[in-house]
């Protein structure tokens, strides 16, 4: 159910109980994978010091192996073991960005979607999912075009149940359309993008 609340004193532009999955067109799968890869990269930012330490450790062990050929077997074993452990940790973070591992399900349906005026040129879009998922928005002037729109990552690409995304530099009197990426799928309001006019 879509409620247009543009005239409400609460400054809500729309409130939607639940979105429906968008039909997957041929051009969308690449965009979904790219967006998920981007969210994975953002999600790795808090772990970047550990990744840097791992890389430095790997380089230091390589230098040690080069200098001490007599202990090469022992050092090589430790270096290979550290490399395998590091690849396992880093690889698991990127697993969901691969199409073969991504599965849409009812637990990723965006629910309680709200678009609220945030400032004189921005809105806050919020939604809830039943399980922790990554999320993003595609926004553009109506009619929405994949090639003339912007992707806004929600919650810095982190896994969460409560999603928020700020959209800035909106123009007054202009109609915008939004699609929500939740987990692996794009969602709309009953097969059409969520539409609102910024005032």
Q: Give the rounded overall mean pLDDT.
A: 75
CATH architecture of the largest domain: Sandwich
Report the uncertain regions.
Answer: 5-9, 24-33, 95-103
CA-based gyration radius: 22 Å
Q: Helix- and strand-based class? A: alpha+beta
In the CATH hierarchy, the third-tier topology of the largest domain is known as: Immunoglobulin-like
**Number of individual domains:** 2
Order of helices and strands: EEEHHHEEEEEEEE
Percent of residues in β-strands: 25-35%
Q: In this structure, how is the largest beta sheet organized?
A: 6 strands, antiparallel
First-residue to last-residue Cα separation: 23 Å
Number of helices: 3
Under CATH at level 1, the class of the largest domain stands as Mainly Beta
CATH superfamily of the largest domain: Immunoglobulins
The backbone outline, from C-alpha atoms, is: elongated
Report helical residue fraction: 25-40%
How are the SSEs ordered, and which strands pair?
Elements: E1 2-4, E2 12-18, E3 20-21, H1 28-44, H2 48-67, H3 72-94, E4 111-119, E5 122-133, E6 135-141, E7 150-153, E8 160-167, E9 175-182, E10 185-188, E11 194-197
Antiparallel strand pairs: 1-2, 2-4, 3-10, 4-5, 5-8, 6-7, 6-9, 9-10, 9-11
Helix pairs in contact: 2-3
Walk me through the structure:
By secondary structure, the protein is an alpha+beta fold. The chain folds into two domains: 2-24 and 106-197, Immunoglobulin-like (Sandwich), CATH 2.60.40.10; 41-100. Helices cover 30% and strands 34% of the residues. It has three helices and eleven strands. The strands form two sheets. Strands 3, 6, 7, 9, 10 and 11 form a six-stranded antiparallel beta sheet that branches. The protein has a five-stranded antiparallel beta sheet with strand order 1-2-4-5-8, with no helix packed on it. A hairpin with a 2-residue loop joins strand 9 and strand 10. Helix 2 (48-67) runs antiparallel to helix 3. It starts with a strand and ends with a strand. The relative contact order is 0.21.
